Amino acid sequence: MADSASPQRAYRAACPGCGAPVLFRSAQSSYAVCDYCRSTVVRDGEVLKRLGKMGELFDDHSLLQIGAGGKQDKRPFTVVGRLQYQYPEGRWTEWQLMFDDGGAGTLSEDNGAYVLSEGLSLSREVPAADAFRVGMNTALNGKPFSVASIQEVHLVSAQGELPKLPPLNHPFQMAELRSPQGEVVSIDYGTSPPQLSLGREVSIEGLAMTGLKDESAREEKGRAFDCPNCGASVEPKLDGSKSITCGQCGSIIDLSRGVGAELSHVEQTESFSPDIALGKVGQLEGAHWQVVGFQHRVGHEPDDPDEQFGWNEYLLYNAKKGFCFLVDSTEGWSLVRPVTGAPEYKGGNSARYQGRQYSLKYSYEAETTYVQGEFYWQVQRGQKTSNRDFASGKEQLAREESSREVTWSAGSSIPAASVAKAFGVDDPSKLDAAPLAGKKGVGCGTLIVVAIIVIILLIILAQCANDNSGSGSSYRSSGSSYGGSSSSSGGHK
Fold first, then answer.
1. φ, ψ of residue 124 in degrees (nearest 5)
2. What is the pLDDT of residues 66-88, one digit of tens each?
3. What is the pTM of this model?
4. Rounded to whole angstroms, how far apart are CA atoms 234 and 225?
5. Handedness of CA 82, 36, 71, 239 (dihedral sign)
Protein backbone atom coordinates (compact mmCIF):
# COMPACT_ATOMS: atom_id res chain seq x y z
CA MET A 1 0.00 0.00 0.00
CA ALA A 2 1.11 3.57 -0.65
CA ASP A 3 1.32 6.14 2.15
CA SER A 4 1.18 9.88 1.68
CA ALA A 5 4.56 11.25 2.53
CA SER A 6 6.31 14.36 1.38
CA PRO A 7 8.02 14.82 -0.97
CA GLN A 8 7.58 11.30 -2.39
CA ARG A 9 5.42 8.23 -1.92
CA ALA A 10 6.20 5.64 0.68
CA TYR A 11 5.37 1.96 0.31
CA ARG A 12 4.42 -0.42 3.10
CA ALA A 13 3.94 -4.14 2.61
CA ALA A 14 3.83 -7.28 4.73
CA CYS A 15 7.10 -9.06 5.38
CA PRO A 16 7.05 -12.41 3.53
CA GLY A 17 8.89 -13.93 6.52
CA CYS A 18 6.67 -12.96 9.46
CA GLY A 19 3.89 -10.70 8.15
CA ALA A 20 5.07 -7.57 10.00
CA PRO A 21 4.88 -4.27 8.06
CA VAL A 22 8.02 -3.25 6.16
CA LEU A 23 8.24 0.43 5.15
CA PHE A 24 10.00 1.89 2.10
CA ARG A 25 10.17 5.68 2.24
CA SER A 26 12.64 6.20 -0.60
CA ALA A 27 12.13 5.35 -4.25
CA GLN A 28 15.84 4.55 -4.41
CA SER A 29 15.61 1.86 -1.74
CA SER A 30 15.33 -1.59 -3.31
CA TYR A 31 16.08 -3.60 -0.16
CA ALA A 32 15.01 -3.58 3.47
CA VAL A 33 15.50 -5.61 6.63
CA CYS A 34 12.44 -6.51 8.68
CA ASP A 35 12.73 -5.13 12.21
CA TYR A 36 10.95 -8.16 13.66
CA CYS A 37 12.35 -11.31 12.03
CA ARG A 38 15.51 -9.87 10.42
CA SER A 39 14.40 -11.11 6.99
CA THR A 40 16.12 -9.44 4.06
CA VAL A 41 13.53 -8.44 1.46
CA VAL A 42 13.68 -6.96 -2.02
CA ARG A 43 10.94 -4.77 -3.48
CA ASP A 44 9.47 -5.91 -6.79
CA GLY A 45 6.85 -3.30 -7.59
CA GLU A 46 4.55 -3.37 -4.57
CA VAL A 47 5.41 -6.98 -3.72
CA LEU A 48 8.18 -7.98 -1.28
CA LYS A 49 10.32 -11.09 -1.83
CA ARG A 50 12.39 -12.68 0.94
CA LEU A 51 16.08 -13.18 0.15
CA GLY A 52 17.21 -14.66 3.46
CA LYS A 53 17.95 -13.67 7.05
CA MET A 54 20.31 -10.85 8.01
CA GLY A 55 22.92 -11.28 10.72
CA GLU A 56 22.53 -9.62 14.10
CA LEU A 57 23.63 -6.01 14.48
CA PHE A 58 26.65 -5.24 16.62
CA ASP A 59 26.18 -2.30 18.98
CA ASP A 60 28.34 0.55 17.67
CA HIS A 61 27.05 2.76 20.52
CA SER A 62 26.58 5.62 18.10
CA LEU A 63 24.62 8.82 18.61
CA LEU A 64 22.97 8.15 15.25
CA GLN A 65 19.86 6.06 14.80
CA ILE A 66 17.23 5.39 12.17
CA GLY A 67 14.72 8.23 12.06
CA ALA A 68 17.24 10.96 12.94
CA GLY A 69 17.24 13.97 10.65
CA GLY A 70 19.45 16.85 9.57
CA LYS A 71 20.35 19.28 6.78
CA GLN A 72 23.25 19.32 4.33
CA ASP A 73 23.55 22.56 2.30
CA LYS A 74 19.91 23.38 3.20
CA ARG A 75 18.78 19.93 1.94
CA PRO A 76 16.84 18.08 4.66
CA PHE A 77 17.51 14.36 5.05
CA THR A 78 16.43 11.41 7.18
CA VAL A 79 18.48 8.42 8.35
CA VAL A 80 16.64 5.38 6.96
CA GLY A 81 19.10 2.46 7.27
CA ARG A 82 22.58 1.26 8.09
CA LEU A 83 25.12 -1.22 6.79
CA GLN A 84 27.78 -2.78 9.03
CA TYR A 85 31.00 -3.97 7.39
CA GLN A 86 34.05 -5.85 8.60
CA TYR A 87 37.65 -5.56 7.39
CA PRO A 88 40.91 -7.01 8.78
CA GLU A 89 41.37 -4.20 11.35
CA GLY A 90 37.80 -4.09 12.64
CA ARG A 91 34.27 -3.01 11.72
CA TRP A 92 32.52 0.18 10.69
CA THR A 93 29.00 1.46 10.05
CA GLU A 94 27.55 3.34 7.08
CA TRP A 95 24.29 5.17 7.76
CA GLN A 96 21.96 5.46 4.77
CA LEU A 97 20.38 8.89 4.18
CA MET A 98 17.26 9.86 2.24
CA PHE A 99 17.06 13.51 1.15
CA ASP A 100 13.72 15.23 0.83
CA ASP A 101 14.52 16.05 -2.81
CA GLY A 102 14.72 12.32 -3.61
CA GLY A 103 18.48 11.95 -3.42
CA ALA A 104 20.34 9.37 -1.34
CA GLY A 105 23.57 9.60 0.65
CA THR A 106 25.77 7.92 3.22
CA LEU A 107 27.13 9.16 6.56
CA SER A 108 30.16 7.19 7.73
CA GLU A 109 33.09 7.48 10.13
CA ASP A 110 36.49 8.54 8.77
CA ASN A 111 39.53 8.69 11.04
CA GLY A 112 37.49 9.87 14.00
CA ALA A 113 35.43 12.33 11.94
CA TYR A 114 32.33 11.96 9.72
CA VAL A 115 32.11 12.02 5.93
CA LEU A 116 28.84 12.57 4.06
CA SER A 117 28.89 11.00 0.60
CA GLU A 118 26.60 10.89 -2.43
CA GLY A 119 26.72 8.89 -5.62
CA LEU A 120 29.36 9.67 -8.27
CA SER A 121 29.37 8.84 -11.99
CA LEU A 122 32.58 8.49 -14.01
CA SER A 123 33.09 9.64 -17.55
CA ARG A 124 34.85 6.33 -18.24
CA GLU A 125 34.67 2.71 -17.10
CA VAL A 126 35.47 2.15 -13.42
CA PRO A 127 39.01 0.72 -13.08
CA ALA A 128 39.35 -2.78 -11.68
CA ALA A 129 40.40 -3.08 -8.03
CA ASP A 130 43.78 -4.60 -8.97
CA ALA A 131 44.54 -1.49 -11.05
CA PHE A 132 45.09 0.44 -7.82
CA ARG A 133 47.92 0.23 -5.31
CA VAL A 134 48.17 2.11 -2.02
CA GLY A 135 49.93 5.46 -2.43
CA MET A 136 49.63 5.76 -6.22
CA ASN A 137 48.31 8.91 -7.93
CA THR A 138 45.46 8.78 -10.41
CA ALA A 139 42.69 10.96 -11.83
CA LEU A 140 38.89 10.73 -11.78
CA ASN A 141 36.82 12.95 -14.06
CA GLY A 142 39.94 15.03 -14.67
CA LYS A 143 40.67 15.66 -10.96
CA PRO A 144 43.79 14.33 -9.16
CA PHE A 145 43.39 11.70 -6.44
CA SER A 146 45.71 9.45 -4.48
CA VAL A 147 44.86 5.90 -3.42
CA ALA A 148 44.50 5.92 0.38
CA SER A 149 43.42 2.31 0.99
CA ILE A 150 42.43 -0.98 -0.61
CA GLN A 151 40.64 -3.36 1.73
CA GLU A 152 38.90 -6.69 1.47
CA VAL A 153 35.61 -6.20 3.30
CA HIS A 154 32.34 -8.02 3.77
CA LEU A 155 28.87 -7.09 4.94
CA VAL A 156 28.02 -8.52 8.38
CA SER A 157 24.65 -6.92 9.11
CA ALA A 158 22.09 -4.35 7.99
CA GLN A 159 19.02 -2.52 9.23
CA GLY A 160 16.22 -0.46 7.70
CA GLU A 161 15.89 0.34 4.01
CA LEU A 162 18.87 0.23 1.69
CA PRO A 163 19.71 1.33 -1.87
CA LYS A 164 22.33 -1.44 -2.17
CA LEU A 165 22.93 -4.77 -0.51
CA PRO A 166 26.12 -6.77 -1.10
CA PRO A 167 25.88 -10.50 -0.37
CA LEU A 168 26.12 -11.21 3.36
CA ASN A 169 29.57 -12.43 4.52
CA HIS A 170 30.84 -12.49 0.93
CA PRO A 171 34.25 -10.73 0.69
CA PHE A 172 34.80 -8.02 -1.89
CA GLN A 173 37.21 -5.17 -2.52
CA MET A 174 36.69 -1.56 -1.53
CA ALA A 175 39.07 1.20 -2.64
CA GLU A 176 39.34 4.68 -1.14
CA LEU A 177 40.81 7.67 -2.97
CA ARG A 178 41.47 11.16 -1.59
CA SER A 179 42.01 14.54 -3.26
CA PRO A 180 43.92 17.72 -2.31
CA GLN A 181 40.51 19.45 -2.07
CA GLY A 182 39.51 17.28 0.90
CA GLU A 183 37.32 14.90 -1.09
CA VAL A 184 36.97 11.17 -0.49
CA VAL A 185 35.93 8.75 -3.24
CA SER A 186 34.89 5.22 -2.28
CA ILE A 187 34.66 2.48 -4.92
CA ASP A 188 32.49 -0.43 -3.83
CA TYR A 189 33.23 -3.61 -5.83
CA GLY A 190 30.51 -5.56 -4.01
CA THR A 191 28.02 -4.72 -6.76
CA SER A 192 28.14 -5.02 -10.54
CA PRO A 193 28.97 -2.54 -11.89
CA PRO A 194 31.00 -1.08 -8.99
CA GLN A 195 29.36 1.83 -7.20
CA LEU A 196 31.18 5.11 -6.52
CA SER A 197 30.49 7.81 -3.96
CA LEU A 198 32.04 11.24 -3.36
CA GLY A 199 32.18 12.71 0.12
CA ARG A 200 33.50 15.51 2.30
CA GLU A 201 34.07 15.89 6.03
CA VAL A 202 31.07 17.08 8.06
CA SER A 203 30.22 17.44 11.73
CA ILE A 204 27.11 16.31 13.58
CA GLU A 205 26.78 19.88 14.87
CA GLY A 206 27.11 21.35 11.38
CA LEU A 207 24.38 19.04 10.07
CA ALA A 208 21.99 20.39 12.72
CA MET A 209 20.85 16.86 13.45
CA THR A 210 17.78 16.00 15.48
CA GLY A 211 16.41 12.74 16.83
CA LEU A 212 19.79 11.50 18.08
CA LYS A 213 20.07 9.02 20.91
CA ASP A 214 20.12 10.84 24.22
CA GLU A 215 22.73 10.15 26.86
CA SER A 216 20.30 8.42 29.22
CA ALA A 217 19.26 5.94 26.55
CA ARG A 218 22.85 5.13 25.79
CA GLU A 219 23.82 4.77 29.44
CA GLU A 220 20.96 2.37 30.12
CA LYS A 221 22.55 -0.19 27.82
CA GLY A 222 25.69 -0.36 29.91
CA ARG A 223 29.05 -1.08 28.29
CA ALA A 224 31.04 -2.44 31.22
CA PHE A 225 32.57 -5.88 30.84
CA ASP A 226 35.13 -8.07 32.58
CA CYS A 227 38.70 -7.93 31.33
CA PRO A 228 39.38 -11.23 29.49
CA ASN A 229 42.84 -11.37 31.14
CA CYS A 230 42.38 -10.43 34.82
CA GLY A 231 38.60 -10.14 35.27
CA ALA A 232 38.63 -6.49 36.38
CA SER A 233 35.72 -4.29 35.28
CA VAL A 234 36.38 -2.28 32.10
CA GLU A 235 33.97 0.38 30.85
CA PRO A 236 34.48 2.17 27.49
CA LYS A 237 33.52 5.84 27.59
CA LEU A 238 33.63 6.75 23.89
CA ASP A 239 31.23 5.96 21.08
CA GLY A 240 32.75 3.62 18.56
CA SER A 241 35.93 2.69 20.47
CA LYS A 242 37.75 -0.15 18.71
CA SER A 243 40.42 -0.75 21.40
CA ILE A 244 40.76 -0.15 25.14
CA THR A 245 43.28 -1.04 27.82
CA CYS A 246 42.44 -2.58 31.18
CA GLY A 247 43.17 -0.19 34.03
CA GLN A 248 44.14 -3.10 36.28
CA CYS A 249 46.50 -5.27 34.21
CA GLY A 250 47.19 -3.02 31.21
CA SER A 251 46.05 -5.59 28.61
CA ILE A 252 44.99 -4.24 25.20
CA ILE A 253 41.43 -5.41 24.50
CA ASP A 254 39.98 -5.56 20.97
CA LEU A 255 36.46 -4.04 20.79
CA SER A 256 36.17 -4.05 17.00
CA ARG A 257 33.52 -6.80 17.10
CA GLY A 258 31.47 -5.04 19.78
CA VAL A 259 31.37 -5.30 23.57
CA GLY A 260 29.03 -8.28 23.48
CA ALA A 261 31.32 -10.36 21.26
CA GLU A 262 34.13 -12.65 22.35
CA LEU A 263 36.96 -10.30 23.33
CA SER A 264 40.58 -10.91 22.46
CA HIS A 265 43.45 -9.27 24.33
CA VAL A 266 47.22 -8.79 24.36
CA GLU A 267 49.12 -8.43 27.63
CA GLN A 268 51.55 -5.56 28.25
CA THR A 269 54.32 -6.20 30.77
CA GLU A 270 55.77 -2.69 30.67
CA SER A 271 54.78 0.05 33.05
CA PHE A 272 54.65 3.55 31.60
CA SER A 273 53.39 6.73 33.27
CA PRO A 274 52.29 9.50 30.84
CA ASP A 275 53.16 13.09 31.79
CA ILE A 276 49.50 14.00 31.25
CA ALA A 277 47.10 11.61 32.97
CA LEU A 278 44.22 9.95 31.13
CA GLY A 279 40.94 11.75 31.76
CA LYS A 280 42.54 15.20 32.10
CA VAL A 281 40.67 18.02 30.38
CA GLY A 282 42.51 21.00 28.91
CA GLN A 283 41.69 23.97 26.68
CA LEU A 284 43.63 24.27 23.41
CA GLU A 285 42.76 26.48 20.46
CA GLY A 286 39.55 27.61 22.13
CA ALA A 287 38.12 24.13 22.73
CA HIS A 288 38.11 21.75 25.68
CA TRP A 289 39.84 18.44 24.98
CA GLN A 290 39.91 15.32 27.14
CA VAL A 291 42.87 12.92 27.12
CA VAL A 292 41.33 9.54 26.26
CA GLY A 293 44.30 7.58 24.93
CA PHE A 294 48.09 7.41 25.04
CA GLN A 295 50.64 5.54 22.97
CA HIS A 296 54.43 5.40 22.95
CA ARG A 297 56.02 4.85 19.57
CA VAL A 298 59.55 4.09 18.45
CA GLY A 299 61.15 4.85 15.10
CA HIS A 300 64.35 4.04 13.29
CA GLU A 301 65.94 4.92 10.01
CA PRO A 302 65.28 2.28 7.30
CA ASP A 303 68.99 1.58 6.77
CA ASP A 304 69.92 1.55 10.48
CA PRO A 305 67.43 -0.37 12.66
CA ASP A 306 69.71 -0.16 15.74
CA GLU A 307 69.50 3.62 15.87
CA GLN A 308 66.16 4.33 17.54
CA PHE A 309 64.19 7.32 18.80
CA GLY A 310 60.85 7.61 20.54
CA TRP A 311 57.89 9.89 21.00
CA ASN A 312 54.52 9.99 22.79
CA GLU A 313 51.06 10.60 21.36
CA TYR A 314 48.03 11.65 23.41
CA LEU A 315 44.63 11.07 21.81
CA LEU A 316 42.33 14.02 22.60
CA TYR A 317 38.54 14.08 22.26
CA ASN A 318 35.93 16.82 21.98
CA ALA A 319 32.27 15.84 21.57
CA LYS A 320 31.69 18.38 18.78
CA LYS A 321 35.12 18.49 17.12
CA GLY A 322 36.03 14.81 17.24
CA PHE A 323 39.64 13.68 17.76
CA CYS A 324 43.11 15.16 17.50
CA PHE A 325 46.62 14.22 18.67
CA LEU A 326 48.93 16.00 21.09
CA VAL A 327 52.42 14.78 20.21
CA ASP A 328 55.51 14.96 22.41
CA SER A 329 58.71 14.28 20.47
CA THR A 330 62.38 15.03 20.84
CA GLU A 331 61.74 18.34 19.09
CA GLY A 332 58.88 19.50 21.31
CA TRP A 333 55.09 19.45 21.31
CA SER A 334 52.63 19.70 18.45
CA LEU A 335 48.87 19.48 17.90
CA VAL A 336 47.86 17.49 14.80
CA ARG A 337 44.68 16.19 13.17
CA PRO A 338 44.04 13.55 10.52
CA VAL A 339 43.41 15.02 7.06
CA THR A 340 40.20 13.99 5.27
CA GLY A 341 41.65 14.55 1.81
CA ALA A 342 45.27 14.09 0.78
CA PRO A 343 48.03 16.65 0.09
CA GLU A 344 49.61 16.81 -3.35
CA TYR A 345 52.49 14.36 -3.18
CA LYS A 346 54.35 12.56 -5.95
CA GLY A 347 56.84 10.61 -3.89
CA GLY A 348 59.65 13.19 -3.78
CA ASN A 349 60.99 15.45 -1.06
CA SER A 350 58.08 17.89 -1.01
CA ALA A 351 54.31 17.98 -0.56
CA ARG A 352 51.72 20.70 -1.03
CA TYR A 353 48.66 21.20 1.17
CA GLN A 354 46.14 24.06 1.26
CA GLY A 355 48.37 26.29 -0.86
CA ARG A 356 51.50 25.78 1.29
CA GLN A 357 54.67 23.97 0.18
CA TYR A 358 56.22 21.50 2.67
CA SER A 359 59.73 20.04 2.55
CA LEU A 360 60.69 16.52 3.64
CA LYS A 361 62.34 16.55 7.06
CA TYR A 362 62.50 12.92 8.18
CA SER A 363 61.88 9.48 6.70
CA TYR A 364 61.72 6.47 9.05
CA GLU A 365 59.97 3.27 10.12
CA ALA A 366 57.64 3.52 13.15
CA GLU A 367 56.30 0.96 15.64
CA THR A 368 53.77 1.21 18.49
CA THR A 369 55.32 -0.19 21.69
CA TYR A 370 52.90 0.77 24.50
CA VAL A 371 49.29 2.00 24.77
CA GLN A 372 46.85 3.21 27.44
CA GLY A 373 43.19 4.24 27.26
CA GLU A 374 40.78 3.76 24.40
CA PHE A 375 41.03 4.45 20.67
CA TYR A 376 38.73 4.82 17.69
CA TRP A 377 40.90 2.40 15.68
CA GLN A 378 42.10 -1.11 16.48
CA VAL A 379 45.46 -0.24 18.05
CA GLN A 380 47.98 -3.01 18.64
CA ARG A 381 51.48 -3.35 20.02
CA GLY A 382 53.91 -3.93 17.21
CA GLN A 383 51.89 -2.01 14.60
CA LYS A 384 54.38 -0.76 12.01
CA THR A 385 54.19 2.00 9.43
CA SER A 386 56.52 3.78 7.02
CA ASN A 387 56.53 7.48 7.94
CA ARG A 388 57.52 10.72 6.28
CA ASP A 389 57.47 14.08 8.06
CA PHE A 390 57.27 17.36 6.17
CA ALA A 391 57.64 20.89 7.53
CA SER A 392 56.96 24.48 6.50
CA GLY A 393 58.00 26.78 9.33
CA LYS A 394 55.91 25.76 12.36
CA GLU A 395 53.41 23.92 10.17
CA GLN A 396 53.79 20.15 9.77
CA LEU A 397 52.53 17.31 7.59
CA ALA A 398 52.93 13.63 8.43
CA ARG A 399 52.39 10.67 6.13
CA GLU A 400 51.97 7.11 7.43
CA GLU A 401 51.79 4.12 5.10
CA SER A 402 50.96 0.49 5.83
CA SER A 403 50.35 -2.35 3.39
CA ARG A 404 46.64 -1.45 3.13
CA GLU A 405 46.39 2.25 3.91
CA VAL A 406 47.95 5.72 3.71
CA THR A 407 46.95 8.39 6.22
CA TRP A 408 47.95 12.06 6.37
CA SER A 409 47.86 14.43 9.34
CA ALA A 410 48.47 18.16 9.59
CA GLY A 411 49.37 20.30 12.58
CA SER A 412 51.68 22.85 14.10
CA SER A 413 54.09 23.11 17.02
CA ILE A 414 52.90 24.31 20.41
CA PRO A 415 55.01 25.52 23.40
CA ALA A 416 55.42 23.14 26.32
CA ALA A 417 54.29 25.94 28.63
CA SER A 418 50.95 26.12 26.79
CA VAL A 419 50.47 22.37 27.19
CA ALA A 420 51.30 22.56 30.92
CA LYS A 421 48.87 25.46 31.44
CA ALA A 422 46.10 23.78 29.46
CA PHE A 423 46.21 20.51 31.40
CA GLY A 424 47.27 21.84 34.80
CA VAL A 425 50.63 20.05 34.97
CA ASP A 426 52.11 20.85 38.40
CA ASP A 427 55.73 20.65 37.22
CA PRO A 428 55.89 22.20 33.72
CA SER A 429 59.63 21.48 33.50
CA LYS A 430 59.03 17.78 32.97
CA LEU A 431 57.14 18.54 29.76
CA ASP A 432 60.36 19.99 28.35
CA ALA A 433 62.14 16.67 28.54
CA ALA A 434 62.16 14.44 25.49
CA PRO A 435 60.48 11.02 25.79
CA LEU A 436 63.65 9.36 24.53
CA ALA A 437 67.02 10.36 23.11
CA GLY A 438 67.44 12.62 20.10
CA LYS A 439 66.27 12.17 16.55
CA LYS A 440 69.30 10.17 15.60
CA GLY A 441 68.62 7.85 18.53
CA VAL A 442 70.75 5.63 20.69
CA GLY A 443 71.32 2.19 19.24
CA CYS A 444 73.19 -0.62 20.94
CA GLY A 445 76.43 0.24 19.20
CA THR A 446 76.19 3.86 20.26
CA LEU A 447 75.52 2.89 23.87
CA ILE A 448 78.60 0.68 23.97
CA VAL A 449 80.83 3.46 22.63
CA VAL A 450 79.37 5.97 25.08
CA ALA A 451 79.87 3.55 27.97
CA ILE A 452 83.56 3.07 27.09
CA ILE A 453 84.09 6.82 26.89
CA VAL A 454 82.38 7.33 30.26
CA ILE A 455 84.58 4.67 31.90
CA ILE A 456 87.74 6.30 30.55
CA LEU A 457 86.60 9.71 31.78
CA LEU A 458 85.83 8.33 35.24
CA ILE A 459 89.31 6.82 35.46
CA ILE A 460 90.89 10.14 34.48
CA LEU A 461 88.74 12.05 36.96
CA ALA A 462 89.60 9.61 39.74
CA GLN A 463 93.29 10.11 39.10
CA CYS A 464 92.83 13.87 39.15
CA ALA A 465 90.92 13.63 42.44
CA ASN A 466 93.75 11.67 44.02
CA ASP A 467 96.30 14.20 42.85
CA ASN A 468 94.23 17.07 44.32
CA SER A 469 92.72 15.38 47.39
CA GLY A 470 93.61 18.30 49.67
CA SER A 471 92.08 21.04 47.57
CA GLY A 472 88.50 20.63 48.92
CA SER A 473 87.00 21.57 45.54
CA SER A 474 83.70 20.09 44.19
CA TYR A 475 81.47 20.36 41.07
CA ARG A 476 77.86 19.63 39.96
CA SER A 477 76.79 19.01 36.43
CA SER A 478 73.61 20.70 35.30
CA GLY A 479 71.24 18.74 33.13
CA SER A 480 69.82 20.10 29.88
CA SER A 481 66.41 19.59 28.29
CA TYR A 482 65.16 19.99 24.80
CA GLY A 483 62.03 19.43 22.76
CA GLY A 484 60.51 20.02 19.30
CA SER A 485 57.82 19.22 16.80
CA SER A 486 55.83 16.13 16.01
CA SER A 487 57.48 13.08 14.57
CA SER A 488 54.19 11.47 13.72
CA SER A 489 50.57 12.25 13.45
CA GLY A 490 49.05 9.07 14.71
CA GLY A 491 46.33 9.13 12.10
CA HIS A 492 44.46 5.80 12.05
CA LYS A 493 41.17 4.42 11.01
1. -140, 175
2. 999 999 999 999 999 998 888 87
3. 0.73
4. 5
5. negative
